[in-house]
């Protein structure tokens, strides 16, 4: 369960998170949405401890996490751009992450699922963007973490892998996990997420189910509902 | 930290640059021995090359490696690891692999020339140690520069500038100031000034070790006069260690505050 209170972060003069509050994110799939530059990635990176907030608090199961590191055992993170050490082989990268994180893993079935057996002994530099993304998925889902954070997980995936990814996310959800996703692909969000956290100018402007968002904006589909909120804020 | 070090090291050992660096020293070693046909003369020439070249390579590689491993660092940052572990591990992986290229590249030609049979072995080893220490120092300095600059071009530029300053400009300024202020007693100034330049320090250290007073120069002579050879070597070694630990400490404290 993640709770965020009064989170501030600026980069130089640019205020990215401006007193952001987020009531407890419990079990389920949460989509963090917002226009470009609204602070989605910064928020995620604050939770992961990659960006250090200026002030505020982030609590994981009622424990403050800012400045700590052990809590990351409970989080699996899939970064937006999959760029790995070019001279390592796929199998070595997987082994490396495993040794850095001595937890139980299930990479064999994931490798099979995404058809990566032939790529295991290739160097990461020689892989295509989509294959790298599949490796990224394996690295994220091989651990059984209670919290999963996915930053634009669909980038570069072919339709078949996309279906597998969705199945994977839904399977993880059924294990009572907290899953946080950012994406610009609304059909994907609409299909899999339970709740939407909409960010605007560094603050949460909407937090609720897709249905309630549609009701609030009087729009029939999610894409238009989102466009509606953004437009309102511009007026 | 050892795990990160191991993987950074493996990654670098497979990069072509490590081999280019290795073969360069291999080639240099053979050419020096072939041209001089004498171990102790080759070692003196080698000193001049190492004192200038290892810092340059350390500076460029340190900055470049940091920028190239940006995404990898992000992957590691999301794992349950301390930031100190990640950055010190990477730094050590890089410095050790560079030092290994140096030691292996020069070791092979000098070994095959029979350095073990000669009394020059200790001078040779001390040159390799100084080369290694300079690699560590300048890799750490350029790592700091890279951590402070998001822009790759700027970071690498500053790293090269840091090398240029310590290797070339510093000596020039030093000489000019000696000439301008030659009516004043300059011993303390000269001592102080050389302490602030790791390249000067290591040059003095090697020359004291090789015991070639003709090459000592002003600061070296002052240092030897003040402290004698053995205390002089001890002091220069301690200063070099400080030059290594201060930038390392800065890497740790900088990385703690940085956003990725």
The domain count of chain A comes to 1
Q: Please compute the radius of gyration of chain A using only Cα atoms.
A: 18 Å
Examine the secondary-structure arrangement and name the CATH architecture of chain A: 3-Layer(aba) Sandwich
**Total DSSP helices of chain A:** 8
What is the global morphology of chain A?
globular
Query: Strand-residue fraction of chain B?
Result: under 5%
This entry's quaternary arrangement is heterodimer
Helical segment tally of chain B?
10
Largest interface: A-B, 30 and 27 residues
Strand content of chain A: 25-35%
Strands across the major sheet of chain A, in which order? 6-7-8-3-9-10
CATH superfamily of chain A: P-loop containing nucleotide triphosphate hydrolases
Number of strands of chain A: 10
The low-confidence runs of chain B, each spanning 5 or more residues with pLDDT under 50, are none
Tell me the total number of β-strands of chain B: 0
- Classify the fold: give the CATH topology of chain A: Rossmann fold
* Percent in helix of chain B: over 70%
Mean residue pLDDT of chain B: 88
Q: How many domain modules of chain B?
A: 1
Overview of the structural elements:
Chain A has eight helices and ten strands. Chain A is an alpha/beta fold and 235 residues long. Chain A has a single domain (2-234), classed as Rossmann fold (3-Layer(aba) Sandwich), CATH 3.40.50.300. In chain A, the strands form two sheets. A six-stranded mixed beta sheet of chain A has the order 6-7-8-3-9-10, with helices on both faces. Chain A has a four-stranded antiparallel beta sheet with strand order 2-1-4-5, covered by helices on one side. The longest helix of chain A is centred in the C-terminal third of the chain and has 15 residues, at 159-173. The two termini of chain B are 20 Å apart. Chain B has one domain (2-257). In chain B, helix 6 runs antiparallel to helix 9. Chain B has helices spanning 2-13, 16-36, 39-68, 70-77, 83-112, 121-148, 152-180, 187-195, 198-210, 217-257. At the A-B interface, helix 2 of A face helix 1 and helix 4 of B.
């Amino acid at each position: 369960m993640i709770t965020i209170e009064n989170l501030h972060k600026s980069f130089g003069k640019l205020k990215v998170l401006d007193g952001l509050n987020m009531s407890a994110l419990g079990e389920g799939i949460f989509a963090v949405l917002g226009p470009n530059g609204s602070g989605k990635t910064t928020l995620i990176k604050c939770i992961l401890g990659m960006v250090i907030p200026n002030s505020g608090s982030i609590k994981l199961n009622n424990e403050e996490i800012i400045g700590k590191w052990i809590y990351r055992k409970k989080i699996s993170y899939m970064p937006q751009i999959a760029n790995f050490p070019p001279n390592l082989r796929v199998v070595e990268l997987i082994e490396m992450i495993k040794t850095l994180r001595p937890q139980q893993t299930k990479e064999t079935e994931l490798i099979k699922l995404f058809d990566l057996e032939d790529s295991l002994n290739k160097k990461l530099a020689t892989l295509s963007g989509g294959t790298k993304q599949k490796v990224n998925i394996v690295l994220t889902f091989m651990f059984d973490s209670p919290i999963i954070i996915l930053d634009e997980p669909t980038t570069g995936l072919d339709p078949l892998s996309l279906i597998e990814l969705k199945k994977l996310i839904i399977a993880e959800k059924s294990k009572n996990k907290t899953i946080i996703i950012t994406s610009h692909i609304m059909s994907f969000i609409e299909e899999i997420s339970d709740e939407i956290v909409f960010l605007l100018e560094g603050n949460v402007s909407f937090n609720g189910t897709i249905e309630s968002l549609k009701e609030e904006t009087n729009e029939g589909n999610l894409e238009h509902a989102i466009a509606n909120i953004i437009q309102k804020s511009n007026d | 930290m050892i795990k990160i070090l191991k993987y950074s090291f493996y990654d670098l050992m497979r990069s072509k640059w490590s081999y280019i660096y290795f073969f360069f020293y291999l080639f240099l070693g053979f050419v020096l021995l072939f041209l001089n046909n004498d171990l102790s003369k080759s070692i003196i020439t080698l000193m001049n090359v190492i004192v200038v070249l290892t810092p340059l390579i350390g500076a460029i590689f340190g900055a470049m490696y940091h920028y190239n491993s940006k995404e990898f660092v992000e992957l590691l940052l999301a794992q349950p690891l301390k930031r100190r572990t990640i950055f010190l591990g990477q730094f050590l992986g890089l410095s050790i692999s560079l030092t290994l290229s140096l030691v292996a590249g020069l070791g092979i030609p000098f070994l095959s020339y029979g350095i073990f049979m000669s009394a020059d072995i200790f001078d040779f080893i001390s040159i390799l140690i100084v080369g290694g220490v300079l690699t560590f120092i300048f890799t750490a300095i350029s790592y700091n520069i890279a951590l402070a600059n998001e822009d790759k071009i700027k970071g690498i530029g500053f790293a090269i500038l840091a090398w240029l300053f310590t290797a070339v400009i510093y000596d020039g300024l030093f000489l000019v100031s000696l000439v301008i202020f030659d009516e004043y007693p300059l011993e303390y100034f000269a001592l102080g000034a050389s302490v602030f330049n790791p390249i000067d320090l290591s040059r003095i250290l090697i020359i004291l070790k090789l015991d070639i007073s003709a090459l000592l120069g002003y600061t070296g002579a002052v240092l030897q006069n003040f402290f004698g050879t053995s205390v002089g070597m001890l002091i220069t070694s301690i200063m070099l260690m400080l030059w290594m630990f201060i930038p390392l400490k800065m890497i740790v404290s900088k990385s703690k505050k940085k956003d990725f």
